[in-house]
Amino acid sequence: MHDIVIRGGKILDGTGSAAFTGDVAIDGEKIVSVGGKAGPGRREIDADGLLVTPGWVDVHTHYDGQATWDPLITPSSWHGVTTVLFGNCGVGFAPVRRQDREAVIELMEGVEDIPGITLTEGLKWDWESFPEYLDALERQPRAIDIGAQIPHHPLRVYVMGERAIRREAATAEDVAEMRRLTEESLLAGAFGFTTSRTNSHKTPSGEMVPGRFAEIDELVGIGGALGATGIGAFGMNSDFEHEDTELDWATRLSIETGRPVWFLMTDRPTDPDRWRRLLKGVHAARAAGANVTAQVAGRPVGVILGVGTSLNPFSVRDAYDEIERLPVDQRIARLRDPEVRRAILSAPPSPQRLAKLSQFRQLITTSWHKMFIMGDPLDYEPEESQSIAAIAARGNRTPDEVAYDYLTEGLDRFLFFPVTNYSAGSHEPIREMLCDSATLIGLSDGGAHCGSIVDASVPSYMLTHWGRDRTRGPGLPLEMLVKRQTNDTASFFGLKDRGRLQPGLRADVNLISFENLRLRMPEIVDDLPAGGRRLIQRVDGYEATFVAGTQTFDRGEHTGRLPGRLVRAGR
């Protein structure tokens, strides 16, 4: 007699093997049989017509703060994600001294667009060191599993203080201390170390982050901790200003430590061929014996523009100041005033406001041909003929007017602005990246960019767009799409007990009505601590999600069960 038997579903086991029909039996937290006809169960679930998959393992999120107050880790848990990894892009909240808490909050607010007031209200700060941060996370029940990496920027501030914030070079003693603390963190359960070397990451005042110009000796010195412990991966977000140099030291670090090195890779509007050069470099590094991987996204990294979001084409104009100070629900009425409309449309973008934005968000003032109305059904691969520029040309209007008049129809009106991964005007580069053996899917950024991006839905989008709905080019096999975000992501970070439906592994399972799987329109909600605002995106089609054999969601609703836990690397 099994605890649970899921009967007659179409099983995609996460290995990439062809789908097959059969039963999945669960006892306690573990899967005990997959395929064929299982014996009786205390609970039996008819999965006829449903996909049965492993739970998604999302390795690029920013729930560092949210995980301390939100047991559900939404919106990721709504989308069948059963394990998340945060501490990406070099930002996080440990280690931190009391006097540096505000600076660390400002870093997260600037880099990842998480409201500072939310973090100030929500963080309990019952830790200082990174191991103490892990202990604090472990004390809380939650719906899904979480894991953390140690971030470079707070580590640098912890060791160097104001010198780090001024971006001074680290001394040999600084590097040695950062390495020691990284070793301590890895042994406590961190899944690796991450850093950021990009002009896209700025503080709210427009300053670069503390590790932006860290010397290679500093990065390699800290990275040695991974080799010393035999734990974790080294990750970075880099502008690759000197591509060969950056790839060379990453290759050397991986070979010397024996540990994986990964970096984020997208196409860029200012250099559409960059990703091909970098991917060629990854294959060269692998040929030399290094374990180097490019982490890629499943769709364009798209900023959502609206009256209630963090950014829109008019919020970078000084004439918008008065509107921005109003409560969100009062803005539409004011914007519809003809005099206000005239003043804003005639005002030029403010150079000072633009300077505080990341490099590609600054294109918001010129890229009307890359801005699209978010309609129903949602289309993340629109043609240029659907752009604001094209609509304006057909109607003999300016793009500013078209965008303004559409956005002021209501708070639920949004424009989609793909800032990266859309240089070609299609998803073909993304498809090539996803099909390359040297890439890993990530970049959902769950928990981050609260007022401008909601890509935590990408795990669901992988199935709907690439596995079913794409019309502008070939899709991808479901078996591959499941494997890419279960077995592959779990295995890369050493999570050997999950990511596949196999006897003896954790019973992290999704039951999905594939024909009914559908992303809903993004929404603005004020449900963060201190009334902080964020974008969310719900989904239809998940019939059930199980974490360690316990059902956590039933048709999109939380069951009240909290079987999730902190996962520690090497444990």
Description:
Helix 8 links the parallel strand 11 and strand 12. The protein has 571 residues and is α/β, with parallel strands linked by helices. The strands form six sheets. Strands 1, 2, 3, 4, 5, 18, 23, 24 and 25 form a nine-stranded mixed beta sheet that branches. A six-stranded parallel beta sheet has the order 9-10-11-12-13-17. The chain has a three-stranded parallel beta sheet with strand order 6-7-8. It has three domains: 2-54 and 510-558, Urease, subunit C, domain 1 (Roll), CATH 2.30.40; 56-300 and 422-494, TIM Barrel (Alpha-Beta Barrel); 303-416, no CATH class. The model has no long low-confidence stretch (mean pLDDT 96).
Provide a concise account of the structure shown.
The protein has 571 residues and is of the alpha/beta class. The chain has 19 helices and 25 strands.
User: What name goes with the CATH superfamily of the largest domain?
Assistant: Metal-dependent hydrolases
Return Rg in Å. Answer: 23 Å
The helix content is 25-40%
Q: How many beta strands in the DSSP annotation? A: 25
Topology of this structure?
Layout lengths: L1 E10 L8 E8 L2 E5 L6 E6 L4 E4 L1 E3 L22 E6 L14 H12 L3 H7 L7 H9 L6 E4 L1 E2 H9 L1 H4 L6 H17 L3 E6 L18 H14 L3 E6 L4 H15 L3 E4 L9 H14 L4 E5 L4 E5 L15 H4 L3 H8 L2 H9 L4 H5 L16 E2 L14 H7 L4 H9 L7 E6 L7 H8 L3 E3 L16 H12 L8 H7 L2 H6 L16 E4 L5 E2 L3 E6 L3 E5 L2 E2 L1 E6 L2 E5 L2 E2 L13
Parallel strand pairs: 1-4, 1-5, 6-7, 7-8, 9-10, 10-11, 11-12, 12-13, 13-17
Antiparallel strand pairs: 1-2, 2-3, 5-18, 14-16, 15-16, 18-23, 19-22, 20-21, 23-24, 24-25
